[in-house]
Amino acid sequence: MEVSNSRAYRDLSPWQIVAQLADCGRYLGSESSFYRVLKQNLLSHREKSKPHVHSRPKDLLARNPNEVWSWDITYMNSALRGAYYYLYLVEDIFSRMIVGWTVEEVESADHAARLIDRVCQEQAIAIGSLTLHSDNGAPMKGATLLATLERLGVAPSFSRPSVSDDNPYSESLFKTLKYRPSYPDGAFGGLDEAREWVGRFVQWYNTEHLHSAIRFVTPRSRHLGLDKAILDKRRAVYENAKRLNPLRWSGHTRNWSAITEVCLNPKKETMKTQVEIPIHQRGGRTAWKRRPKDSAISQRIERNTYGGGVSPQNGLHRGSITNDQHPGKGLPRVKNRLSEDLLQAPGRRSMPRFKATMDYPSLENLP
């Protein structure tokens, strides 16, 4: 430990320490010995060799519009090969409404700062009431944008480096945008054409698109608080239909309740279920073994006995076994190379066989 933590060796791996000690004419132990001692003393990294740990982003919960925004930049092809137009897009994660956008010829923190400043004024954002989430790009962490956010009282939030799913709402919106049938297969003819197309898309998305994540209402309706009345009307229609034809529904009608909370980067919880595996033993008694299992599929282990005139359920022969002490006696010969090898095996004694089967539904019951 003293050598590993010394100034000369604290930034080196055990492999490098052993090699340098050998150059100095010293031998203290092998590489595995160094690793074992370091592990016993709870030292996996030393001094500056310790890697930087990126903590997961803070959970952001929105219960109303203009509480959490997500924004990002995406490329749009131009007529010049290798040159692109850059679409800046700001989305409210609670209502899924696009609250601001712009198309520019370069990525710049200055363009982002002007966009955020303009959108905050249009939405009348109060100081300290908004969190703006983005990835770790240079425009997102530029000094101009960070100074603007501090002046506006907007709290910045960033994704982890090299983690693509920490900003899912903006990524999903970009996919919806680029998979629109009207999105050009080639390139935009110019900057004005690109801005005109994005303007039409934003108008359609906010006022006509029925978003599946917010009970199929438009983002603008939800942003303005009109979604509750729309969903209440739909619920009344379904309840009336169920009253007129109750046999059509075996349970409750469709859930038309409004989404009250939207979370960005929630913590992932893993659930472990207890699975019971029955093992059928001799004498009719059943032993139950309980063990945790992540999968919802359980296995049933059945025992097949080659004795007492019982046919094996999944064996190699169809006939009954009359005397299991004499291999092959009383068994019909079949053209099976594996079964012939088993018949010729000397001293084969009766032994329990286990078959693992999966509890899958029968194909006959499928619609």
Textual characterization of the structure:
It is a single chain. This protein has 367 residues and is α+β, with helices and mostly antiparallel strands. The chain folds into 3 domains: 14-49, no CATH class; 60-214, 2-Layer Sandwich (Nucleotidyltransferase, domain 5), CATH 3.30.420; 273-365, no CATH class. The chain is 28% helix and 19% strand. It has helices at 14-23, 31-40, 109-122, 143-152, 168-178, 191-207, 219-223, 227-244, 337-343, and strands at residues 60-62, 68-77, 84-92, 98-104, 131-134, 155-158, 262-264, 273-280, 286-293, 299-304, 353-358. It has a 5-stranded mixed β-sheet with strand order 4-3-2-5-6, with helices on both faces. A two-stranded antiparallel ribbon has the order 1-7. A two-stranded antiparallel ribbon has the order 8-9. Strand 5, helix 4 and strand 6 (155-158) form a beta-alpha-beta unit. Helix 1 crosses helix 2 (31-40) and helix 3 (109-122) runs parallel beside helix 4. The longest helix is centred in the middle third of the chain and has 18 residues, at 227-244.
